[in-house]
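From the methods appendix. Each design record in this collection lists the tokenized structure first, followed by the designed amino acid sequence. Records were kept in a plain field format so they could be parsed without special tools. The example shown here is representative of the layout used throughout.

RECORD:
FOLD TOKENS (256 positions):
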């Protein structure tokens, strides 16, 4: 008689691996790497666009400097073409501002509010506003809009407000301060006390950045006494300002 525990002795052993995984679970382990790849893709594409834009920006800066030195129409066209190529690759706020500034400078060169300047100012305005929409806290773009406002013949109080915003958003840039002083001295009848207080520090920054040029600018705008308030004679910078300003005034006196 066969033993009960021998029954099925020849049967295959049962599997100990457990039940098979549900269908469709295999793809889930790829989900996280795929999501990370998708998150990394936009910055990688942006970097890929920035690189050629940066490479184009180097000759654009050189061509702009060449045009400013020569004033030649051919040099202007070459500089603008380089800036437009940079924008085509990657229209970031800084590239928009630099192209707008180039257009503004060209408008000044060809006559300010003359008919030939109007299309340049319109294009510069559009680029400045596009830059502002992406970098609203950048004092450079507010200064650019203030200069454009003056050239376009806007309400001077609006221009002053744009200038004020530029100072408040970026008060400590010396080169930008010099550009703001150039604009501010044309708008003296429209200053209020609050703006004048803000401008005192801009005068000091601009003088520290380019002493002789600052004094020349103040003399050309008949504003030497206006800016002198920022330079107390008992301070080192005040003594330096008085010396350079005095030499400049003497240098403009007619010979005896």
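DESIGN:
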């Amino acid at each position: 008689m066969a033993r009960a525990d021998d029954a099925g002795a020849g049967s295959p052993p049962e599997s100990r691996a457990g039940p098979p995984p549900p269908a469709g679970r295999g793809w889930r382990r790829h989900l996280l790497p795929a999501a990370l790849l998708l998150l990394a893709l936009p910055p990688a594409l942006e970097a890929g666009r920035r690189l050629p834009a940066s490479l184009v920006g180097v000759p654009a800066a050189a061509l702009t400097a060449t045009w400013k030195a020569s004033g030649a129409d051919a040099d202007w066209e070459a500089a603008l073409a380089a800036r437009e190529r940079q924008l085509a690759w990657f229209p970031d706020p800084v590239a928009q501002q630099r192209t707008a500034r180039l257009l503004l400078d060209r408008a000044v060169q060809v006559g300010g509010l003359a008919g030939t300047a109007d299309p340049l100012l319109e294009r510069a305005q559009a680029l400045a506003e596009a830059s502002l929409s992406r970098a609203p806290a950048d004092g450079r773009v507010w200064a650019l809009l203030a200069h454009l406002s003056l050239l376009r013949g806007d309400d001077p109080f609006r221009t002053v407000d744009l200038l004020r915003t530029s100072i408040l958003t970026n008060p400590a840039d010396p080169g930008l301060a010099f550009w703001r002083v150039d604009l501010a001295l044309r708008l003296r009848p429209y200053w209020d006390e609050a703006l004048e207080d803000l401008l005192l520090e801009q005068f000091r920054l601009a003088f520290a950045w380019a002493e002789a040029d600052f004094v020349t600018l103040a003399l050309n705008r008949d504003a030497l006494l206006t800016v002198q308030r920022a330079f107390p004679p008992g301070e080192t910078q005040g003594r330096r300002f008085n010396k350079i300003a005095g030499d400049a005034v003497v240098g403009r006196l007619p010979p005896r």
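APPENDIX NOTE: The chain has eleven helices and no strands.
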